[in-house]
Amino acid sequence: MPCGVNKLENEKNNKMDLINIVGTLGGIVSSVTFLPQVIKIWQTKSAKDLSMGTLLFLVLNVSLWLLYGVLTKLYPIIITNSIVLSMVLCMVFFKLTFKK
Amino acid sequence: MPCGVNKLENEKNNKMDLINIVGTLGGIVSSVTFLPQVIKIWQTKSAKDLSMGTLLFLVLNVSLWLLYGVLTKLYPIIITNSIVLSMVLCMVFFKLTFKK
Q1: Which of B2, B35, B80, B87 has its CA 20 to 30 A from that of B43?
Q2: CB contact under 8 A, A18 and B57
Q3: Which domains does chain A possess?
């Protein structure tokens, strides 16, 4: 194989590695994003400042991502968005429960 | 081309169409998700119940998606996440400004 092709192949592999690392990091961060908010509402028993519109958009958004993951059979997307959806639904429940 | 192959090709195209529709819908919904929350904080001048931890995770999360979009040159991901990042930074600013 000519040296140039090998170098190109290496650069492509390095870029794929970086894309995979960024994707994996993104998945881990996504999963824990709403945990501090869920804990805060639970501790203060207050969700007055949270927008129900944004919460419902989040439900729709994460559900679409879950559907995308199922259609493309990408299991990291399925797992991440299942975790996020459960937390978002938790916030919707809190918003309806804690009226103060 | 044998009929079976043609049918398989059609099914594959239909699935790709569905994946693209779900992806586009997801992008549109993502872009507007935090708009109601930004408007609500602006109107009430209160962000007490919002978790700074979740806001910072959102900044990290959306930045990673933006980086992913830049690395993969996927412009819908770049545009969507630029819009979302501007709204999330807006919420961080509000959280720091409106202390009540």
Answers
A1: B80
A2: no
A3: 3-97 (1.20.1280.290)
Residue in this structure with the two tokens 């930074």, named with its chain if needed: B89
Using a CB-CB cut-off of 8 Å, the residues of chain B touching A15 are 71
The two three-digit tokens of residue B95, written as one number: 């959280």
CA B81, B83, B84, B88 torsion: positive or negative? positive
Contact A48 B49 (CB under 8 A): yes
Whether residue A36 and residue B54 make contact (CB cut-off 8 A), yes or no, is: yes
Q: In whole angstroms, what is the distance from residue B52 CA to residue A69 CA?
A: 29
Q: Model confidence over B38-76: pLDDT tens digits?
A: 999 999 999 999 999 999 999 999 999 899 889 888 888
Q: pTM score, two decimals?
A: 0.83
